[in-house]
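Write out this protein's structure.
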Amino acid sequence: MPELPEVEALTAILAERAAGREIARVLPVAVSVLKTYDPPLSALEGHTITAAARRGKFLDLATDGPHLVVHLAKAGWLRWRDGLPEAPPRPGKGPLALRLLLAGPERSGFDLTEAGTRKGLAVYVVRDPQEVPGIARLGPDPLDDSFTLEAFAGLLRGVRHRIKGVLRDQSVIAGIGNAYSDEILHAARMSPYRLASDLTEEEIAGVYEAMGATLRSAVERSRGLAATDLKGEKRGGMRVHGRTGQPCPVCGDTVREVSFRDSSLQYCPTCQTGGKPLADRRLSRLLK
């Protein structure tokens, strides 16, 4: 799933290549991705793109009229293209969901695609980004200057939920998903099962520092990369997420996994849980 660093990089690509240019056509291929109908998708045509911004894991393309807001979900992606075909795309079983063509003889623009059968890519055309429900309930951005240690500690106070889930909750902190929450907790040497309300001041400070360092490093690594290279950079920069069975780069212990119905987490027992493996209920059921 694209998270804060990848969406930040895609936003930078659009700000560089699309800002100041007029939208010629917006061509829906998978109508199911459209989550709004007023204004219609065609209302974007003829308007000039004024800015691109990231709001949590949402991408916000502002024009001198409505906004085009995109949530890439688990398997969505944005592909910048030069020389788009003259013929409009045909609906089918392929990954293409929407095409945006900019005015000009070079026929540049971007495609929104989504792999797999579980569709979650969402496109909104709104007058104000706050009209998108997911944006309206976003918590603070962890890279914003106002997101201080004191602000983070206040969010955790009295929260009887595991710290892994708290970091992923977009209404608490915007932009962090499954992968970077694993990386943050590994850097903080913290079990993903610890209750947020039980953390000491020192532990809260450790998670806060790890959060800032992990996300800023990922953003910096992604800066200037083409959209096609961002996924590989994300995978290559991970220390525990997606590396089950491999040695931890810090201590050499084997990275382990806990599986859930639709996701999994990875961690290092030596670095994070005092050497003790976490209970994996799915595996326990298989062994009975």
